[in-house]
TrEMBL record:
Name recorded for this polypeptide: HAD-IA family hydrolase
NCBIfam families, sorted: HAD-SF-IA-v1, HAD-SF-IA-v3
GO biological processes: DNA repair
Name of a matching Pfam family: HAD_2
Length: 224
């Protein structure tokens, strides 16, 4: 058995506008000036409270928690109203098809909440494509390896037969900490050079390259 573990935000879906809007609302709820959108994109993928803490390093933990709660409320309201789209990146479906056709199981490890992840996957009709969903509200978040370890256990796959696909150094470090190979994607929120420096095994510039890159890092299927 082989497993491809995808990040969500910045890898499967382009959610930057929704995330920046919700973070801006979270800050406003506490009377804070809007954060720099570029800095918000830098923390995408971390557990929410940890992301807020990186944006407000001098603030006390209680404020981090309040901003995070306001963020969640704003994100939910924006999603249910259809105010901000979270489109799939071009070629996602075709890449998933190619991996499944090659006998690879699919999973997700994301900083999103379970509710948020299920909502976006249902919206795009992808929920039933993934055999394991790991979220940072249920398991320790990136770069901790726990989401990968839990994904491997749920899928019944050895670490040597798994590959993480992600757009941030948090994804790469999570994979390295779990001793799993990693494909870095260049269309997300961290630069390709950063992903390589963090330890990505290779980079891809489009979803057309994902299946071959992932399969190239996995053991071949034994022939009878």
């Amino acid at each position: 058995m082989r497993l491809a573990i995808f990040d969500c935000d910045g890898t499967l879906v382009d959610s930057q506008h929704a995330i920046v809007a919700a973070m801006t609302a979270g800050f406003a709820a506490e009377g804070l000036a809007a954060p720099d959108p570029a800095l918000v994109r830098r923390v995408v993928g971390l557990p929410l409270v940890g992301a807020v803490a990186m944006l407000l390093p001098e603030a006390d933990p209680a404020l981090h928690e309040r901003v995070a709660e306001a963020y969640k409320a704003a994100f939910f309201q924006n999603r249910t109203s259809g105010r901000y789209l979270e489109p799939l990146y071009p070629g996602v479906r075709e890449a998933l098809d190619a991996l499944e056709d090659a006998g690879v199981l699919l999973g997700i490890a994301t900083g999103k909440s379970r509710r948020g992840l299920v909502a976006i996957l249902e919206h795009h009709g992808l929920l039933d494509r993934f055999v394991t969903l790991q979220t940072s509200d249920l398991v320790a978040g990136k770069p901790n390896p726990d989401m990968v370890i839990h994904a491997l256990s749920e899928a019944g796959v050895e670490r040597e037969a798994a590959v993480v696909i992600g757009d941030t150094t948090f994804d790469v470090l999570m994979a390295r900490n779990a001793r799993v190979r990693c494909v870095g994607v260049t269309w997300g929120y961290h630069e390709g050079a950063e992903l390589v420096a963090a330890g990505a095994n290779c980079l891809v510039d489009s979803y057309a390259e994902v299946p071959s890159a992932v399969l190239g890092l996995m053991p071949s299927v034994a022939t009878q």
